[in-house]
Amino acid sequence: MDQANRHNPPSRPNAPTVSIDTAVAARKPDAESPLPSSAQATPMQPDPGEESLFNIVGNPFGLSPGHLSKLIEPKSVVALQALGSLPGLERGLRTDARAGLSTDETRVQKEPGCGRAATNTREPKINHTDPSQPLSFLNKCSDHYLDRRRVFGENRLPDRKSKSFLALAWIALQDRVLILLSVAAAISLALGLYQTFDGHREEGHGAQVEWIEGVAIIVAILVVVIVGALNDWQKERQFRRLNQKKEDRSVTVVRSGRAARISVHDVLVGDVMVLEQGDVIPVDGVLSEGHNVSCDESSSTGESDLVKKMPAEAVSQALLQPDADIRKLDPFLLSGAKVLDGVGRFLVTAVGPHSSLGRTMLALRNDPGMTPLQARLNVLAGYIAKLGSAAGVLLFTVLLIEFLARLPGNTASGQEKGQNFLRILITAITIIVVAVPEGLPLAVTLSLAFATKKMTRENNLVRHLQSCETMGNATVICSDKTGTLTQNVMTVVGGSLGTGGTTFADRDFSPHTARRLSNCNAIPSTKDAGGGAAMTGKQQLTTSELASTLHIEFRDLIKESIAVNTTAFEGEENGQPAFIGTKTETALLDWAKRNFGLRPLATERAQYPLAQVFPFNSRRKCMGSVIQLPGNKHRLLVKGAPEVVLERCSTAVADPTQPLSPTPLQVSDKTAISDAVSQYASLSLRTLALAYRDLDSWPPEGKHADDSADIFHSMTWLAVVAIQDPVREGVPAAVHDCRRASVAVKMVTGDKVETARAIARECGIIADDRDSGGRVMEGAEFRHLREEQRRTVVRELCVLARSSPEDKRVLVESLRALGEVVAVTGDGTNDAPALKAADVGFSMGVMGTEVAKEASDIILMDDNFSSIVKALAWGRAINDAVKKFLQFQITVNITAVVLTFVSAVASSEERSVLNAIQLLWVNLIMDTFAALALATDPPNGSLLDRAPEPRNAPLINLTMWKMILGQSVYQLAVCLTMHFAGPSFLPYPDPQLRTLVFNTFVFMQIFKLVNSRRIDNKLNIFEGLHRNHLFMLMMALMVAGQVLIVFIGGAAFVVVRLSGVQWAISLVLGFMSIPVGILIRLVPDRYLGACVRRLPSLPRWRRKTRETDQEASAGRGYNAAATGRNLESAMFSIRDDLAFLKRVRGGRIAALSEAIAIRPSRSEGENGQRRRSKSTMRSAVGMPGLLAASIGAMSPVVRQAETGSTRSVRQSGD
């Protein structure tokens, strides 16, 4: 019995069962009651439509989910008393508020006469397992608690029904352009069949297969639809698995009187769950025992005020008082609420869909919407779609005019004329299919899905997808020390007992550390002539000598302080008995067990009934527990930061080897103790002080029991212990990688300056003592800086010591106000504001509180700083993958559209060199195969060799445009030369020449895909290729598909077989894309930039806006409200652009556009009307404008919207 009795006195009298009549009669008249009379009269009456929750077939329990729902919806003390308060819940749920559920329970036999809980007087049968039996099986036994699961359900929401493959295929088939193309292909097929079987066949023309083109186009459409549906189906599966992992976590429950860690999904109604500060409550319940429990229920009620909780039995007692205010009696714990203070335990009353949070989540299930990168890509996609649509319409118009002009002299049959017209229509429609880049959102979705899956394997659990994109451009990482930079494997290796005359060091743990500690412990002792604490010499001990040297009174007091004043408990880790709790507390318990004969915690605690607990928080920087001593005396036990505890001590134990005799603590004693603490800190050791205070009564006369300021003074100093927490292996290398990537690392810790400086030096955050570039500052000094001074300091600041969570938040917001992209780590409840304020928040998966995890974007499952660097690399890989795909796709867009347009207009038969079915094959390569190949490139070593991109960087930078334009010029020059001048130097028949042009064009795209693996000017395009197996598979599929098309495509693709020489020409010209790419990379970017700056069409207004934004941001801090308004305006523009895509395409694009649903702001225009967007997408000004705008970093979305979208979209996902 350890954690089960952690917060209880050893015995508990039977609580009075207050009936509803007694409760109401004891209160004021009904006229003053805050409850409606109907609630008082019939608190258990089912609401309309919820009768099924009250009538469960074969229910062996005295209560049903309907009865329990009356406790919470809304909170009702009246309903609690109607159920018999806590004893009634115990009987009705067949559980025990102390021991919890029995681990032997499988099925529950309904006892005779077992009805409503308030009338059931029989005690529940609780079977207790053998204490030696491990509880690790609790997560694995599916044959336990069968009736309990059936009646009350499990703590998981029903899986949202995913779209089937056929449903996804149907959605993809709703693409309006594909529908139009299908209709045209069907008409072409009908005409072809008529021509083939009408019986009129000219001599010498062989078999007529006019119908094959229509069939081939329909088959190609089906392939596009099936491949798109497969990608969407796979994406949904990956994200569903990610969400399942993201929602799972471990909680502490008491079963059969023993504490156990189980999955949150295995919590059942009737469980007794342990509460600690920082927990996010996963279920509904009623508080059974607790100290100072306060909850933030704003997520459920919308009220930001803290709600003080009272145990159920205390509520029953309060109701007996005539002046009880029922509105202040709250024993109810709501799922989703955050425990901001206190410790305790509660009885679970509702789980899963029956809990308050579960009901809300079921009602609010919707798609999370788009990430900022997806939104930016859709803006670009809309721009390209408009240009492509305009090209398709223009091509159809020109060819139609030519067709009509030649119609009088056309001697072909009516069927042939109809086929010619349909060919013109199909070619124009296919141009639109090729030009509308639906592969852009597919690329970023695939990249995010692939990256999040890989990041999970590397201990980064992504909660919000947009954080992956943002992390790639992080410029500053603000990291905690304990557990992130250090191993969080703590061991007491030394310390100073009393006023410093007796010290000890653990020589067995680390000889090197012991030698350093011995030198540290060799400080001179003080001798006070005025009767203060005095020692004539210094006594140095090893830890093995402590038990035999220290006096039994001092030894028992140390053991008592460590065993009782802690939130840790005994449990299991990896099947072995262990202490479970914070690493600092478990280190103290291990030390006491090794050296002071610490018995099981339940035995130690049973001797000292607990009267009050003051949990640790960042404001107090210490923790206290009040225990009851014989003779109705009490003792306050305190541990915490040495400087805080020492300041509140007035006496000290002078000699721990003698009976306890506290003596006054003089200034010289405090100086000696402070010097010892500083020297320990300089050795990278954490320090923790122990103190106590004896009290004649509790609470002290005239003092309030809950006010620690009235209690924590006039204490007696016991000792300070030094705890070693080594730096994690790999952290110095990770910090070096951050420096290589131009990412600054700042350490934010609550430790002393000396400890923080020593750890920072070991990690490489500060090079050495001579490093003048890194500044170390204490939180107290930092928070008193003026805003202008703070902005000057934060860039140079490397270590912020003795800091509070508020200091961390201010640091983050100051950095963001300077334009930095900030990532921050946090593990405590009070770190939530800093995690929210950062661009990317990392919480600790092992030691982090649930509040911190809820506020974060990524959970570090191993609490390791090296995992943050992995997230940085993956973030850059995601951004690079999308840019690689853009570089590839826009090249294909330009060449395919221009080649088709020019060749069709120049042809006397209105025929393009690339027909519709060939263009659909190119579209499949461009939108699907390329997305799969380029979106799955893992990070390579060179990713960290460049600086982060600024917030307002364009999607397509100058280097990328240089490659796009250069490759487009090369491909168009080759294809147009072969098509128009080919007959003069390539003596091939027209069908072979057309096939040669098509084959060469496709292989140029295939080799261009390899060339697109780099978006910078470096020449190694094969870096990391061997690790991207999907890229090689896609390359093989494209090559195999093209070979099959040429050899057996025949009439379907309108191709003929090529000779060996013709294959060599195709491959050589295609391969030349790689050396051409090398030449393009060797051209300095400044030449292209100079040409762009000379273009008269460069929009100057956008540059002025950006400069104005930068000037404005330099003079003010981060403004969340302004950012939100700018984001809203930008998202309206994106929604309008997507509306165009939706009108043109529908299908999968429609699903993306529906993800944006924003209510118009009344402040954006007069009479509540939204102003028209000024996005450059309002008019298609042509490709030169697009090139100039992108090169000049002129995104269609203003910069504030880009910076705000990363935060606001993330917060909406919370």
Structure write-up:
50% of the residues are buried. The radius of gyration is 37 Å and the shape is elongated. The strands form 4 sheets. Strands 10, 11, 12, 15, 16, 17, 18, 19, 20 and 21 form a 10-stranded mixed β-sheet that branches. An 8-stranded mixed β-sheet has the order 8-27-26-25-9-22-24-23, with helices on both faces. The two termini are 38 Å apart. The protein is 48% helix and 13% strand. It is an alpha/beta fold and 1214 residues long. Helix 14 (372-406) packs antiparallel against helix 16 (439-457) and helix 15 (414-435) packs antiparallel against helix 32 (865-906). Belongs to the cation transport ATPase (P-type) (TC 3.A.3) family. It comes from Triangularia verruculosa.
Query: Terminal Cα separation, in Å?
Result: 38 Å
Name the poorly predicted regions.
1-41, 113-140, 200-207, 522-537, 1098-1145, 1148-1214
- Continuous helix count: 44
> Cα-atom Rg, whole angstroms?
37 Å
The assigned structural class equals alpha/beta
Mean pLDDT: 75
Helix content: 40-55%
Number of strands: 27
* Major β-sheet annotation: 10 strands, mixed
Assembly context of the chains: single chain
Characterize the overall form.
Answer: elongated
Strand content: 5-15%
What are the key terms here?
1214 residues; alpha/beta; ten-stranded mixed beta sheet; eight-stranded mixed beta sheet; 27 strands; 48% helix; 13% strand; disordered N terminus; ATP-binding; ion transport; membrane; P-type calcium transporter activity
